Amino acid sequence: MNILFFLTPKALCSYIDDGCTLRQAMERMENSGYTALPVLDKDGGYCGVLTEGDLLWAIKRLCVMDLRQTEDHSISEITARREVHPVRVDTRIEDLVLVAADQNFVPVIDDKNAFIGIVTRSSILKYCLDRYFSREYELVGAR
Fold first, then answer.
1. Measured between alpha carbons, how far is 59 from 65 in angstroms, rounded to an integer?
2. Is 139 a residue whose pLDDT tops 60?
């Protein structure tokens, strides 16, 4: 099986540009409802993931006390507390599952490091539930 089966394509993902301000990042997170977003460079290359925690610690470290001050700082000033590793589009499913065990989502890149989408841990778990446990549920329900 190919990991593209699980892929949420870039067009359907929320992400932020590496040149945006803290305020823009906070607003994108708020509007998307996600607590972590992939960060992409101007060419669409994967740079990493920014989390709410990263933003919170940056605001503390930078002594930002007013929302307007967040417009004066770029997310490039933020040090991620945890590195989120992407996988290549040709990654084996077994390796994808190992990475997804430690991350809520797994960024997927092509051979040129261009971000093409994400695979969520929930999509993998739903597939496993349907594939490996649905027969057991059918047998229990038939009794």
1. 8
2. no
C-beta pairs of 29-33 under 8 Å, 24+ apart in sequence: 29/55
CA distance 133 to 140: 11
β strands within the chain, DSSP E: 8-9, 16-17, 36-40, 46-51, 87-88, 105-109, 115-120
| Contact between 49 and 38 (Cβ < 8 Å) | yes
Of 111, 88, 112, 110, nearest in space to 99 by CA: 88
Between the CA of residue 114 and those of 32, 56, 74, 82, what are the distances in Å? 22, 28, 22, 21
Is 91 in a helix, a strand, or coil? coil
pLDDT tens column, 91-133: 998 899 899 988 889 999 999 999 999 999 999 988 888 877 7
List pLDDT tens digits, range 55-96: 999 999 988 888 888 899 999 999 888 889 899 999 998 899
Q: CA 4, CA 22: separation in Å to the nearest integer?
A: 32
Residues 24/70, Cβ–Cβ less than 8 Å: no
